[in-house]
Design brief:
Rossmann fold, 2 domains, about 35% helix, about 25% strand
């Protein structure tokens, strides 16, 4: 479903975030005080305003409160991110995500009630380290860092079906996608009668410890 999402702060992170949302079919309203950044963003985002988000009146004028979801990415200014978050809460924005620069910043943002805090450097470091330490690792789930999505290649399980393997009861994991040997695309929510062949790939979701036990 198409969403209308606001991004306050159109630096590298904010603009890339918005560009990705546009590619996924959503509408994005961008806000920044910098003329060069807003000029650049006009060719990428749905709508762009050059205004000061530290002004509650300015946020009201662009009707930021009409958006259900707003992302704040205002560089290293802790004060700005906190003040803008408070204004958005006061104006009734339902979902507020904020980019933070360290854990203390994150704690303050949670205390004032933002819905999600993003520390890009921490997230990137964790993802890269996990990809090295856990071959096949795809990503952590945002709501539970003990749960991950991981890709596997079939060897020993060739000729067996998902029903026969009974992975949910045996290992506590769930297969969510399968890609047959020679195919480029995954198909999702495979049937229990699906048989594996050597070289097939599947993606599963589960706890880190459970997924690391598997040698398919």
């Amino acid at each position: 479903m198409k969403q209308q999402i606001g991004i306050i702060g159109l630096g590298k992170f904010g603009l890339k975030f918005g560009q990705t949302l546009i590619s996924l079919g959503h509408e994005v309203l961008g806000v920044d005080t910098d003329h060069a950044k807003t000029t650049n963003a006009k060719h990428i985002l749905t709508q762009v305003y050059q205004t000061d988000a530290m002004s509650r009146e300015a946020l009201e004028q662009i009707r930021i409160h009409d958006l259900e979801h707003v992302v704040i990415s205002v560089g290293d200014s802790i004060t700005a991110s906190i003040m803008i978050s408070m204004y958005l809460k006061d104006l009734g924005v339902k979902k507020i995500w904020v980019k933070a620069i360290h854990e203390d910043h994150e704690k303050v943002l949670h205390q004032i009630g933002v819905d999600e805090v993003i520390i890009p450097e921490y997230m990137a470091a964790a993802q890269i380290a996990s990809r090295i330490a856990m071959p096949g690792f795809i990503e952590y789930l945002p709501f539970d860092k003990s749960m991950v999505v991981k890709e596997f290649t079939i060897q020993k399980w060739a000729g067996k079906s998902l029903k026969e393997l009974n992975l949910t009861n045996t290992f506590g994991i769930q297969v969510i996608a399968v890609r047959k040997t020679g195919e480029e695309e995954y198909h999702y929510i495979p049937k229990a009668e699906e048989f594996f062949a050597e070289g097939d790939n599947f993606v599963a979701i589960g706890g880190i410890e459970q997924l690391q036990k598997i040698t398919p």
